[in-house]
Automatic annotation (TrEMBL):
Pfam families: 7tm_1
Keyword Flavoprotein annotated: no
Lineage: Eukaryota, Metazoa, Chordata, Craniata, Vertebrata
The name this protein goes by in its record: Prostaglandin E2 receptor EP4 subtype-like
InterPro entries noted in UniProt: GPCR_Rhodpsn (IPR000276), GPCR_Rhodpsn_7TM (IPR017452), Prost_EP4_rcpt (IPR001758), Prostanoid_rcpt (IPR008365)
Gene3D superfamilies tied to this protein: Rhodopsin 7-helix transmembrane proteins
Keywords: Cell membrane, G-protein coupled receptor, Glycoprotein, Membrane, Receptor, Transducer, Transmembrane, Transmembrane helix
Gene Ontology cellular component terms for the protein in this record: plasma membrane
GO process terms (BP): adenylate cyclase-activating G protein-coupled receptor signaling pathway; cellular response to prostaglandin E stimulus; inflammatory response; negative regulation of inflammatory response; positive regulation of cytosolic calcium ion concentration
Membrane topology value: Multi-pass membrane protein
Chief location of this protein within or outside the cell: membrane
GO molecular function: prostaglandin E receptor activity
Subcellular location: Cell membrane
Protein encoded by which gene: LOC115158113
Length: 350
């Protein structure tokens, strides 16, 4: 009898450690990735630091880092004591607020980055007239944080309740509420998230479509200073390909990571069908977004992308039996126009 008890006590820590492996690994990768991202951004050139896109990327990296550092330790603590959230109402509401806020804040910043690229490429006159720079981006980040804090505080103010989920490892809004106000907030949160995802994808595809049109329309006439043709000419093929790659990967990541949670919110509130495993997988997939973001926006920088592009050209030439052409540095690699329309920061996303 005593041997049975001792064996059960020995296996319990092993099971706890095995269960903690996934959240602990996600926490470590998220923190390390975002720290590397912030360090890489700090070492960028000064001219790129003054761009609006750079400021938004920094805001996204800091937001992902804060979200990982604040929410993940609470989740890890629940594996050591499963009643941490269940017995503490205030901590449960705080954990629910963190998941709500950092989920919608990340989507808002990514959407703002897509909007900045859309205005820079598709509406250069508006981009220049509004004076979109790092100061404008910081104001935008402040408005995003303030509005999302106010929006995600509504459950704490009584509009919706926060409950501990069946796994007892995370708290979220009561998305199977039968009352009007909690059900309204569930639909409102899911709708806002869905609109942010939809706007991000549409803006990214609009930019990619514009870049494809620019690539096809090769302008033969000489470029005059300050003309719209200068903007088209300044977008070299390498920059076009890099921007399209970053934007397309962003669309896939945003859709793949955030959509499952949005679907679960709609499904739980409409059908009331309980599926705790699907809910847990949805929130884990949503948290992966904070892990992938820094690798998308930092590691796909122009320097690394150029190396990949050169390697692909050499590989493609060798496959066709042609002698690989070495890259030739051109004097037209960087464009500095002093006109009213073009701006060097428009063409250097990172």
């Amino acid at each position: 009898m005593n041997d049975t008890r001792n064996s059960s006590t020995r296996t319990l820590p092993d099971k706890t450690a095995e269960a903690m492996a996934v959240p602990a690994l996600m926490f470590a990768v998220g923190v390390i990735g975002n720290i590397i991202a912030i360090a890489a951004l700090s070492g960028s050139k000064q001219e790129r630091k003054s761009s609006a896109f750079f400021a938004l990327v920094c805001g996204l990296a800091v937001t992902d880092l804060l979200g990982t550092c604040l929410a993940s330790p609470i989740t890890i603590a629940t594996y050591l004591n499963e009643n941490v959230l269940y017995d503490n109402t205030n901590l449960c509401e705080f954990h629910s607020f963190l998941l709500l806020f950092f989920g919608v804040a990340g989507l808002s910043i990514i959407c703002a980055m897509s909007a900045e690229r859309y205005l820079a490429i598709c509406c250069p006159y508006t981009y220049q007239r509004w004076g979109i720079d790092q100061h404008f981006a910081r104001k935008c980040l402040f408005c995003i944080y303030l509005s999302n804090i106010a929006f995600c505080c509504l459950p704490v103010m009584g509009m919706a309740g926060s409950i501990c989920q069946p796994s007892k490892t995370w708290c979220f809004i009561n998305w199977r509420a039968d009352k009007t106000l909690p059900a309204t907030f569930s639909f409102l949160y899911a709708s806002v998230s869905f609109l942010l995802i939809l706007m991000t994808i549409l803006l990214n595809f609009a930019v990619c479509g514009t870049l494809l049109i620019m690539r096809r329309r090769k302008i033969q006439s000489p470029v005059t200073r300050g003309s719209t043709r200068a903007r088209w000419k300044a977008l070299s093929s390498g920059v076009e390909a890099q921007m399209m790659t970053v934007l397309m990967v962003t669309s896939v990541v945003v859709l793949g990571c955030s959509a499952p949670l949005v679907v679960r919110v709609f499904s739980n509130q409409i059908t009331w069908a309980e599926n705790s495993h699907a809910d847990l997988m949805a929130i884990r997939i949503a948290s992966v977004n904070a892990i992938l973001d820094p690798w998308i926006y930092i590691l796909l920088r122009r320097t690394l992308f150029r190396k990949i592009q050169r390697f692909s050209k050499v590989f493609y030439s060798s496959r066709k039996g042609k002698a690989p052409m070495l890259p030739v540095k051109s004097s037209q690699r960087t464009f500095h126009y002093q006109g009213d329309i073009t701006n060097t920061h428009v063409f250097t996303p990172l």
